[in-house]
From TrEMBL:
Residues 93-135, 235-262 form a coiled coil. PROSITE patterns: PROKAR_LIPOPROTEIN. This is Periplasmic chaperone for outer membrane proteins Skp. The lineage of its organism: Bacteria, Bacillati, Bacillota, Negativicutes, Acidaminococcales. It comes from the Bacteria.
């Protein structure tokens, strides 16, 4: 007898109710979801799906933890770099102050030596200056002490004495300025040399500081570069396991579907069903073969297990054993 197996969606079933199925058709209906739940391998399928879901959640959790750790590690690295830089900057300032103090002490000693030398060079000129004013000042003071003068005359002598003293102080100041000028002139190349030494020392310290920062950052960079690779490797391993489980789920789902379709096709052929609906929502006369399909699946499972057991027994028998 001619037979036909059709799997309809809910929409297709409703369309069929509009008159496409003839009155002489022998129709059957199967509760596909119930048959699926009663399939012997349905429990295994659910377990596989639950394991897949748990592994997927674990994968997401590991990714979040890994990214969080990478972020925290990057922040710790930056904090370490800032602390290192602050330490090196403070060390730089301390060393520069020590160097500058030492250089200034040397410069001070040299300045005193040059000042002593200038004093010796201008000693004769200073002596002449003092001699030039010594006698004038002596005479004026002597005059004030020994000669009796009227107040007006005394005031006049006192004013002359103050004027000579001021003139002497002015000449002394000019001589002092001359000395200072000579000292500064002779100290100028030494000051420049000191500044050059300080600049060179600062450059040396800065170079050492950059090298120290680069050395530490190089070590940390290697660690930071390894972390994403390690995370990708870890997630890659989980992804491979997910792919295997997904493939196992799809393989089992395909096998279950084939079992169900095989039993339905067998019943349809044996009983002459023209159309077998998986489910329907229309007023149509159809035989519900859900229970028969479930029973057929159980028988199919028993035959499958028996065949597997026989294969294992045959595979385990010694070569040449004819008793099996």
């Amino acid at each position: 007898m001619r037979w036909l197996l059709i799997v309809f969606t809910a929409l297709a079933l409703m369309l069929s109710a509009c008159g496409k199925i003839g009155g002489g058709e022998k129709i059957a209906v199967v509760n596909w979801d119930k048959v699926l739940q009663e399939h012997p391998q349905h429990g295994r399928l659910q377990n596989l799906k639950e394991e897949y879901s748990l592994l997927l959640d674990k994968r997401r959790e590991q990714e979040i933890i890994g990214k969080t750790r990478m972020s925290n590690l990057a922040k710790l690295y930056q904090l370490k770099q800032n602390s290192k830089q602050n330490f090196l900057s403070a060390d730089f300032m301390t060393r520069m102050m020590e160097k500058q103090t030492a250089e200034q002490e040397k410069l001070k000693q040299l300045s005193n030596q040059i000042a002593d030398q200038v004093d010796k060079e201008l000693a004769e000129e200073e002596k002449k200056l003092n001699e030039h004013y010594r006698l004038r000042l002596f005479n004026l003071r002597l005059k004030l002490d020994t000669v009796r003068m009227v107040p007006e005359e005394r005031k006049k002598v006192e004013a002359e004495l103050q004027a000579v003293q001021a003139e002497r102080d002015g000449d002394r100041m000019l001589l002092m300025r001359h000395k200072i000028g000579l000292v500064n002139q002779r100290m100028e190349p030494h000051v420049k040399a000191m500044q050059q030494r300080l600049d060179a020392y600062a450059l040396q310290l800065q170079t050492q500081m950059r090298a120290e920062m680069k050395k530490d950052s190089g070590k940390d960079d290697v660690v930071l570069q390894k972390v994403p690779a390690a995370l990708r490797e870890l997630l890659g391993t989980v992804d491979q396991e997910l792919d295997k489980q997904q493939q196992a789920i799809e393989t089992l789902e395909t096998a279950i579907k084939k079992d169900m379709e095989s039993v339905v096709a067998k019943l349809a052929k044996e009983r002459g069903y023209t159309v077998v609906f998986h489910k329907y929502r229309m007023n149509v006369s159809a035989e519900d073969i859900t229970g028969d399909v479930i029973a057929g699946l159980k028988k199919l499972e028993l035959r499958t297990k028996a065949a597997e057991a026989l294969n294992k027994k045959t595979a385990g028998a010694p070569v040449g054993d004819k008793s099996k």
